[in-house]
Amino acid sequence: MGLVTELVDDVKGAVLDPTDEQKAILLAIVAIIIVDRYAWYHDIPFVVQTTAAVGAGFLVFILVSFLISGQFPPDDGTGDGGN
Question: Which residues contact 8 (CB under 8 A, 6 or more apart)?
């Protein structure tokens, strides 16, 4: 039951106290859903719809990551400034 317990703890942590990375991922997922539904309602071909949705999610993820961390790429925690 160790795997199930860890998954439950991860979900509880993401809902109750999300990390910055989880916030960025959630906003990217929301952007994907919005663009996908918009394209579906306007009868845009599936390949274009999917590509646009994934692209929007990627752009939102990068933008939110930058806004949260203030830099590209986000700090890896080593404290060496990426050098």
Answer: none
What distance lies between CA 59 and its chain's CA centroid?
Answer: 10
How many angstroms separate the CA atoms of 47 and 78, rounded? 40
Whose tokens are 């859903």? That residue is: 33
- Cβ neighbors of 65 (< 8 A, separation 6 or more) are 24, 72, 73, 74
pLDDT, tens digit (0-9, with 9 covering 90-100), for 52-74 = 999 999 999 999 988 888 777 65
Short-list 9, 29, 18, CA closest to 68: 18
Answer yes or no: pTM beyond 0.85.
Answer: no
Longest dimension (CA), the chain: 49
Alpha carbon 1 to chain centroid distance? 28
